[in-house]
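Suppose you are handed a protein chain with no further information: no name, no annotation, nothing but its sequence. What can you learn? This example shows the usual starting point.
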Amino acid sequence: MEPKTARNVLIWIFIIALITVGFVVVSDMLTGPSKVRMVSSIDHDCTMNGSGEGVCSFTNLGRFSGSVCGTITVESSLTGTKATSHVFCSGDVDRHSTKKVEFIVTEVSTICHDPLSKNLERISKGGQAVSWTDYCSFTFDEL
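A reasonable first move is to predict its three-dimensional structure. Written in structure tokens, the prediction is:
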């Protein structure tokens, strides 16, 4: 390749690079800077017993590690009374992995149970005892 031809190629590469950089700068000035978002996608699956003790499994389905925080809210369908756990977090969950976190909602035994006498009466008549989940439901509320 002749020196002039190699020099011309380098000049054209430099010009194309300048045009590209200029386009990006002008585009960012008009629309705001572009941002690459590193997003995790953390799914939760929580279970709880009638004493309010439970565990949430946090599974990261995303491409990047991340964490999530929230509370468990329990609500009585009979009275509308609500109880909430303390805030707890998953901790850093690597992509395609799962972490388990324990929690407790202390008021569950107070607001979610049929009085014992009614359960005993049902059992003595051949019926089934009522579970706390017949009176309450719970959700994980992400913060």
